């Protein structure tokens, strides 16, 4: 029997200003996997085909590709040592790589659902999240992509034993297996501790849309994280905590209060330290305000950047003016941008089995 299913994962924007590594928002650009399992085709590793964003970059070797490596991790943690025979995957990707829209988080979440479906494991979302956090070690993107909507999350303080398990190098969690048939696969990967990540979904006012202004260059999240300091002043931490506490409720209120939201989206924990990676960032964040652009509610770096996220009321002419100004500011730095007018998705990642 041939089995077919589709996995669909939204992109995400994390931080939303002050919520570094805490909040994430799922948005209407998708990574979609159309999966066929036909055991009569005897291929031992899934065959991969890509269209869309990253099609020329994404590895087509299932032992090197982030999504299929994640799927194999989930399978191996469940005691299944290899992919089933005859898997083929058509990937259509709308999420640009390295732009701060959670492409790697989406790839990991797609891999979790893929492993779960291939192994017929039916793991609850909480357990899938544990696996995700062994790979993508900040919870904001993966939680929002898995659950959907505007989500806040924290990581549990683990026991010393579980801390050791979670701290294993990524190369042991996701080894790139030798591709030769019959080659040694090394030791079993470490299974995730239980209940690492905890989350809650906030409300989101229907009047708020999202504009993503996406510069045509990549910033790797790892590099943008290494730009951050190891410690912060008490004043800067209090500045962010005060704003985040207000922001999570302000974004759910109808009608949205633009003055409150704009101020609550200010940040002193990550954006100031990333400005050298995104030419023009301080000028852009300062030059687009509710007074210069009616309808603007807030502006921030999306995830680790370089995408700028503007929250705006649902009126399209205002949104176009906001996008045009930000694109113009980037053009002064010889950077061209692509604009996406998006909405917040209420549904997170899905896996839909198709009837034979
Ligand atoms: N759909 C995908 N399939 C395979 N690998 C992916 C996919 N999406 C992202 N990646 C990997 O993740 C990298 C980008 O991750 P990262 O630097 O965290 O940026 P982002 O902000 O887009 O998540 C890509 O260069 C690629 O290696
Ligand atoms: N909180 C993280 C979020 C990274 O998101 P990405 O979309 O850039 O991968 C950070 O700011 O480093």
TrEMBL record:
Catalyzed reaction equations: L-homoserine + ATP = O-phospho-L-homoserine + ADP + H(+)
Gene Ontology terms, MF aspect: ATP binding; homoserine kinase activity
Leading EC class: transferase
The protein's Enzyme Commission number: 2.7.1.39
InterPro entries in alphabetical order: GHMP_kinase_C_sf, GHMP_kinase_N_dom, GHMP_knse_ATP-bd_CS, Homoserine_kinase, Ribosomal_Su5_D2-typ_SF, Ribsml_uS5_D2-typ_fold_subgr
GO process annotations (BP): threonine biosynthetic process
Keyword Transmembrane: no
Functional pathway: Amino-acid biosynthesis; L-threonine biosynthesis; L-threonine from L-aspartate: step 4/5
NCBIfam families: thrB (TIGR00191)
Entry similarity comment: Belongs to the GHMP kinase family. Homoserine kinase subfamily.
Protein name, as recorded: Homoserine kinase
């Amino acid at each position: 029997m041939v089995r077919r299913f589709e996995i669909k994962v939204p992109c995400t924007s994390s931080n939303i200003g002050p919520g570094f590594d805490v909040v994430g928002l799922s948005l209407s650009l998708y990574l979609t996997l159309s999966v066929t399992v036909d055991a009569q085709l005897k291929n031992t590793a899934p065959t991969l085909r890509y269209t869309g964003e990253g099609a020329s970059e994404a590895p087509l070797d299932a032992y090197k590709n982030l999504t299929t490596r994640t799927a194999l991790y989930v399978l191996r943690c469940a005691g299944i040592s290899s992919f089933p025979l005859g898997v083929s995957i058509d990937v259509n990707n709308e999420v640009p790589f390295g732009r701060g829209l959670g492409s790697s988080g989406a790839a990991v979440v797609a891999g979790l659902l893929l492993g779960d479906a291939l192994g017929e494991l039916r793991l609850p979302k909480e357990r899938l999240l544990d696996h995700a956090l062994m790979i993508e070690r900040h919870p904001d993107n993966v939680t929002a992509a898995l659950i959907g909507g505007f989500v806040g999350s924290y990581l549990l303080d683990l026991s010393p034993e579980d801390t050791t398990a979670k701290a294993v190098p990524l190369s042991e969690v996701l080894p790139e297996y030798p591709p030769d048939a019959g080659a040694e696969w090394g030791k079993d990967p470490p299974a995730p501790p239980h209940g690492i990540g905890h989350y809650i979904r906030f409300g989101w006012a229907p009047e708020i849309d999202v504009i993503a202004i996406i510069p045509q260059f990549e910033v790797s999240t790892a590099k943008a994280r290494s730009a951050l300091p190891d410690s912060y002043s008490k004043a800067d931490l209090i500045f962010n905590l005060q704003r985040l506490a207000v922001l999570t409720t302000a974004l759910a209120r109808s009608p949205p209060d633009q003055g409150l939201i704009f101020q609550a989206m200010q940040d002193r924990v990550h954006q100031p330290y990333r400005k050298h990676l995104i030419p023009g960032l301080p000028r852009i964040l300062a030059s687009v305000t509710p007074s210069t652009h009616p309808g603007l509610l807030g502006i921030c770096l999306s995830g680790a950047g370089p995408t700028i996220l503007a929250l705006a009321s649902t009126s399209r002419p205002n949104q176009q003016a906001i996008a045009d100004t930000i694109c113009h500011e980037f053009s002064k730095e010889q950077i061209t941008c692509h604009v996406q007018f998006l909405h917040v998705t209420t549904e997170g990642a899905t896996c839909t089995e198709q009837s034979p």
